[in-house]
Known about the structure:
Strand content: under 5%
CATH architecture of the largest domain: Orthogonal Bundle
Number of domains: 3
Radius of gyration: 26 Å
Largest sheet: 3 strands, antiparallel
Structural class: mainly alpha
Distance between the termini: 95 Å
Order of helices and strands: HHHHHHHHHHHEEEHHHH
Strand order of the largest sheet: 1-2-3
Amino acid sequence: MSQVSKAAPVSPxxxxxxxxxxxxxxxGYSAAYLRSCRGVWKTFARFAAQxxxxxxxxxxxxxxxxxxxxxxxxxAYADLSSRQRVxxxxxxxxxxxxxxxxxxxxxxxxxxxxLPPGFHGVLESYDAFCRQYRRCQPSTRRIRQRHLTQFLHFxxxxxxxxxxxIEPQHLSGFxxxxxxxxxxxxANIVSDLRSFLRFLCMEDLIEDDLSPHVPKVRIPRxxxxxxxxxxxxxxxxxxxxDRSSPKGKRDYAILLLACRLGLRVSDIRTLRLEQLRWDxxxxxxxxxxxxxxxxxxxxxxVGQALIDYLQHGRPVTPYRExxxxxxxxxxxxxxxxxxxxxxxxxxxxxxxxxxxGRRQGLHxxxxxxxxxxxxxxxxxxVISAVLGHRSLESTQxxxxxxxxxxxxxxxxxxxxxxx
Length: 419
């Protein structure tokens, strides 16, 4: 008489792994990426069994596992092999899923998240409300859509099928799942969530206004000192741009608009040919962020860079935007483009190593320009006009910067008007 062998019991960690894989599949991850995650997690399960750990997934156990694969915590991302990067990412995903029952896709891939039809329809209605009645800028609406997609996905992952089923604990749970973000980012998410909940109540999609139950995130207005570049770093960045190529001509003009005139990325991206007032040597535009008009001097340095790009680097197209993509389709830069890759490319080429925690985006060049103006004792009202701030309060934060450590040659001050 043959004996029937019993299947080995499934461990809690193995159950967690299968649930996480199913979760990632719902997020639209490719089969190849799922196989990579499964491989890392199965290896981790064997490692945990050898360690005889009582914890399903502790931070200490994960750190030990990664260290065993040559992944110490202080190892920079750029120094990792592709296999090591996958291992680190996979363990981060599994840890977040274990803690919050949900994993949030990175911002750049949020559009791949498929929400249930009910949630998708509500999100579209809220976006239409923001566009028609709140007159929100497209960039503001895009960010809100991303934040609320994360929230609705969190609800779906916790078996909340309708807005009417939202409870206060879901709100606090979602905010806890975002606690790894910068305080300012978290504050923006909280604000968008409150606005959405008030909309749901107004539309009778929830019985009571749940916005008071959203945890508060208090951020002092001047809590963060702006990141700035030393003058020699800015000049080194500009010096490595190959201005003989169409890419270099375009990028050089973009960098100058940021570091010499302090334009925001959104205003550089949407700058139009008719806003370049060559006869009066100035740039007149309406700021994308504030909707306020702004007039800045078109200096000789900036003007020459723009002329070089327009005459010898910009493709012939019917578009009126100044800056276009380099490759087909030859169209204006995308609405969500923050040009972070541009400054990263030239920073690395120049061999500029920035301290950890220091912001490295194009916006930091705007901060640097404001700091240089402050160093030469430019009145705060003039700096505010140059930056296009609505009030002096937004400019006061630059007074916190240690200007003695950032002493540089003065930017020649030309007349600036801000209507």
